[in-house]
Amino acid sequence: MTDRSGYAARIAEVLAGEHGAKVPYPIGLREVEVIRTAPIGAGLLRITFGGPDIASFHSYVPDEHVRLVFPDEYGVLRLPKLDGQSLEWGNPRPVSREYTVRRHSVADNELDIDFVIHPGGLASDWANTATPGTKVHIAGPPGGVVVPESYDRFLFVGDITALPAISRWLERIRRDAQGWAFIEVAGPDEEIEIDAPAGIEVRWLHRGDLEPGTGDALEKAVRGVEIAAGERVYAWVAGEAGCLRGIRKVVRNELGIGPKDSLIAGYWKRGVADFDREE
After folding, report:
1. Do residues 205 and 182 touch, judged by C-beta distance below 8 A?
2. What is the pLDDT at residue 100?
3. Are residues 53 and 169 in contact, defined by beta-carbon separation less than 8 angstroms?
4. Is the pTM above the cut of 0.90?
5. Fold of 149-268
6. pLDDT digits (tens, 9 = 90+) for 220-238
7. Tens digits of per-residue pLDDT, 241-271?
8. Which residues on adjacent β-strands are paired with residue 112?
């Protein structure tokens, strides 16, 4: 069992401050196995992982990321190597894909990851065929951005790839929190139940026949946000990198929310495999 007490003090320090900060954890490499799978709406597949290695897993904030490591095109599995408290990925780099930690239960020794199901995706195809007993290696998380809950309001914006993180955010945030959550999905069948505080307006935006990552519905929704003078707002934004350009301008220039009070991350980019960029 890994000692988690060493990170409590730093996390408490950030939570008591005015701005968020990334808190590193010692990154791990763990072999886990599929316990069960379940569809979450029409767009997500939840896989629950178990196994002895999860006892050493770290999870403290809503949008932590891990990497699932897969065999290459020739069926060769290359794994990163532990180097102190970090991982050395080497060259050629092992094949991996990044995903949000949806749920981690120390009591149940379980880890949930929600996969966006789409044709041709390496991890999506793997998730579709995974059955109880299927094993995979998971690297991370390397740390997480800890955000104080002292903000007056919170703004969450994202497409379905950001839905697991937004859902976890809304479950864990203080119950009297105020703000907005704008989530783009294809249609009503991709909407899911979210345990959001009553003061958070959750608005589902339907993409319809548009290809993922091509519309401006999220940007239009953010343009409708009004922030009162003197209010402190934290913005969390993630999705297709191209769609974020206009949203970033609105957040920065029109809403006046700076980098210390936000996280804006390109979770994917049309036509690019394994894309991830965080501001």
Report:
1. yes
2. 96
3. no
4. yes
5. Rossmann fold (3.40.50)
6. 999 999 999 999 999 999 9
7. 999 999 999 999 999 999 999 999 999 998 8
8. 48, 103
Overall residue count recorded for the chain in this entry: 279
CA distance 192 to 181: 13
> Can you tell me whether residue 250 is helix, strand or coil?
helix
CA 162 to each of CA 66, 74, 139, 238, 266: distance values in angstroms, whole numbers, following the listed order: 14, 31, 20, 6, 10
Where exactly does CATH 2.40.30.10 map onto the chain?
A: 6-143
Residues of the chain with CATH 3.40.50.80: 149-268
| CATH classification code of 6-143 | 2.40.30.10
| Residue-wise pLDDT tens digits, 114-153 | 999 988 889 999 999 999 999 999 999 998 999 999 999 9
Q: With 80 as the cut, is the pLDDT of residue 279 above it?
A: no
Instruction: Name the β-bridge partners of 200.
Output: 179
Q: CA 112, 118, 123, 129 torsion: positive or negative?
A: positive
Whether 11 contacts 23, CB under 8 Å = yes
Question: CA 30 to CA 136: how far, in whole Å?
Answer: 8
